[in-house]
Write a structure and sequence with these properties.
Strand content: 15-25%
Distance between the termini: 51 Å
Number of strands: 19
Largest sheet: 7 strands, parallel
CATH architecture of the largest domain: 3-Layer(aba) Sandwich
CATH topology of the largest domain: Rossmann fold
Helix content: 25-40%
Number of domains: 2
Length: about 475
C-alpha cells in the first residue's frame, strides 16, 4: 500500500514511520524540511520525501496522485498561544483539498478525546479539524487519544521533571482532573491496526489505557516507579496564568505549550468504551507499565523521538538549509584552534556534548545562561538531548538546534534558540588533527554588539576550556 505520512518529524510520525516500513508499505513522507529526515536509518527503496507546507496550498501539488491512504498527524499546539486553532483549521482544509485530488481511500487522523460538556481550546481545535477532514472525498478514521505516555512525549517529560526535581509540590487544583493515559506503544498499534480496515471507515474511536487517573495519581505513580517519596498538595488559588508559569519554570516545556497544556488539563478526558482494542488484538498497558517502558528506553539511550523535535515556530521556520551556511559579513566570531592527538576521541566528545554531560567547562555558567534565558521567555537548558551519544539534524541540544551533524565529515553545526539580540551559530570541526571551534554571532543593532562585548570575558573562559577538554586525550 502507498501511504502518505504527515508529521514525519514529529513525536508520533517519527515512531510510526519504521512501523509502516516494517509492514512493507511504500511511504511518502511530507515535511517542511528534507534535511530533518534521516533516510540512512530506513530502507530507501520504501521511502520518498516531499517538501511541503500545509499552510501553502501551492506546495501540496507535489503530493502523488496514486496514494492509497494517508495519516494526518499535524497539530500546532506548541507553535502559538492565540492562533494555533486557525492554523490547524487551515492546514486541515488544505490537506483535505489536496487529498481529494488523489486516489486516497482512507485518511487516519490522531485527535484528542472530546468531552462533550466542556472543551479546552486545544480539544475544540482538534474537533474542528476532525469535522473539516470528515468533509473529504475519502473515508475518515479518527482515533481520539488522551495523554500519551512514552519516552520523549511532552506529558511524560513534564511529569518526570516535576517528580524528579520537587520532593514537595504545591500544585494547582487541576491536578485533581481525571484523564485516561495511554502508552505510546498502544497508540502505534492502533494507528497501524486501522490502516486499510474497511470496518473502521467513517468511524471515530476513543483510545485510552485501562485506567482512569487524576494527574496527581499519575505523578505519585511515576514517583513510585522511580522509588521516590513525593508529597503533593493542591491549592485553589493558582490561576491558569500562574499555573503556566509554574510549569514553564519547573519543567522543560515552552511557555506557549505550558499555556495550552494548562488549558487542556482543566478538562476531564475519559474515553467512551469501544471494542477496537479487542478487535485488533491489542493488549492495553497500564500506566505504570508504560512508565516502566519509557524509562527502559531512556536507560538504553534509545529514545526514538521527542516532543522537542518539532521546529521552533519563531527561530528556524525557513528550514535547516537556510542556516547551513554560516554568515561572515557583519558578524563577530570567537574561534579556537587546538591540536588533537586522537581524532576519534575528540569526535566522540563533540557528539556527546550537552544534556547530562554538560559542556565540559564552566557548566555553572551555562546553567546561569539557561536560567536567564527562561526568565525572558526562552527555552533554557532543560530540553537536554534525546540520546547522549547520537545526534542528527533537526534535534534539540539544550538551547541549540542541530543544523548539521556528520561524523564522516567531522563537523557539527548548532544554531541558537535562546533569546538573543541577534543570531548565533556554534560549529565544531576536526581537520588535519586540529579542532576548530567557532562561535559566530550576527548582532541585531547596537544592543547586539553591546551584548557580544559584555560576554567576551565569559567566552574566553568557556570556549577555551571547552576546546581544551575536547582535544585532550
Amino acid at each position: 500500500m502507498k501511504v502518505l505520512l504527515t508529521g514525519v518529524t514529529g513525536y508520533i510520525g517519527k515512531r510510526l514511520l519504521p512501523v509502516l516500513i516494517e509492514d512493507g508499505h511504500q511511504i511518502v513522507c511530507c515535511t517542511r524540511d528534507k534535511g530533518r529526515v534521516d533516510l540512512d536509518a530506513y530502507n530507501q527503496d520504501q521511502v520518498d520525501i516531499i517538501e511541503v507546507n500545509f499552510l501553502d496550498p501551492e506546495s501540496l501539488k507535489k503530493i502523488p496522485k496514486d496514494i492509497n491512504a494517508a495519516y494526518y498527524l499535524i497539530h500546532s499546539m506548541s507553535a502559538s498561544i492565540e492562533d494555533f486553532s486557525e492554523m490547524e483549521r487551515q492546514c486541515a482544509v488544505n490537506f483535505r483539498n489536496a487529498i481529494n485530488k488523489t486516489n486516497t481511500s482512507q485518511v487516519i487522523y490522531l485527535s484528542g478525546i472530546v468531552n462533550d460538556d466542556e472543551l479546552s481550546d486545544h480539544l475544540r481545535s482538534r474537533k474542528v479539524v476532525e469535522e473539516t477532514l470528515y468533509e473529504g472525498e475519502y473515508q475518515l478514521t479518527t482515533l481520539r487519544a488522551g495523554i500519551i505516555v512514552g519516552s520523549g512525549s511532552s506529558s511524560f517529560e513534564i511529569m518526570r521533571d516535576l517528580v524528579e526535581k520537587l520532593p514537595v509540590m504545591v500544585t494547582p487544583k487541576w491536578l485533581n482532573t481525571k484523564s485516561q493515559p495511554i502508552a505510546i506503544r498502544n497508540v502505534l498499534q492502533f494507528l497501524k491496526g486501522v490502516l486499510g480496515r474497511e470496518v473502521c471507515y467513517g468511524k471515530n474511536y476513543d483510545i485510552g489505557g485501562p485506567e482512569v487517573l487524576t494527574y496527581k495519581e499519575m505523578l505519585l505513580k511515576l514517583a513510585k516507579v522511580r522509588k521516590l517519596k513525593r508529597f503533593i498538595f493542591t491549592v485553589p488559588v493558582m490561576t491558569p496564568k500562574l499555573s503556566s508559569y509554574w510549569l514553564y519554570f519547573v519543567t522543560s516545556t515552552s511557555y506557549k505549550l505550558a499555556v495550552n497544556l494548562v488549558d487542556s488539563m482543566k478538562v476531564e478526558v475519559i474515553g467512551k468504551p469501544n471494542n477496537l482494542s479487542t478487535d485488533l488484538g491489542i493488549q492495553l498497558l497500564t500506566y505504570e507499565e508504560a512508565i516502566g517502558l519509557a524509562f527502559d528506553r531512556i536507560e538504553q539511550n534509545s529514545v526514538i523521538s521527542s516532543w522537542t523535535d518539532a521546529l521552533s515556530a519563531d527561530t528556524i521556520e525557513p528550514g535547516l538549509n537556510h542556516f547551513m551556511k554560516v554568515p561572515t559579513h557583519g558578524c563577530l566570531t570567537d574561534q579556537r584552534k587546538v591540536n588533537v592527538t586522537d581524532e576519534s576521541s575528540a569526535l566522540s566528545k563533540i557528539w556527546s556534548i550537552g544534556g547530562e554531560k554538560g559542556w565540559y567547562y564552566g557548566n555553572w555558567l551555562w546553567e546561569i545562561r539557561g536560567f536567564l534565558d527562561k526568565l525572558v521567555g526562552g527555552v533554557g537548558l532543560r530540553r537536554g538531548r534525546k540520546n547522549q551519544d547520537t545526534i542528527s539534524a533537526g534535534e534539540t541540544l539544550d538551547f541549540w538546534r542541530v543544523i548539521y551533524a556528520s561524523k564522516e565529515n567531522r563537523r557539527l553545526l548548532l544554531y541558537a534558540e535562546m533569546k538573543l539580540p541577534g543570531e548565533a551559530w556554534l560549529e565544531f570541526k576536526i581537520k588535519e588533527n586540529q579542532l576548530i571551534q567557532t562561535a559566530t554571532f550576527r548582532p541585531k543593532g547596537l544592543w547586539g554588539r553591546l551584548y557580544w562585548y559584555l560576554v567576551i570575558p565569559f567566552h574566553h573562559l568557556i570556549f577555551q576550556g571547552m576546546a581544551n577538554h575536547i582535544a585532550r586525550n
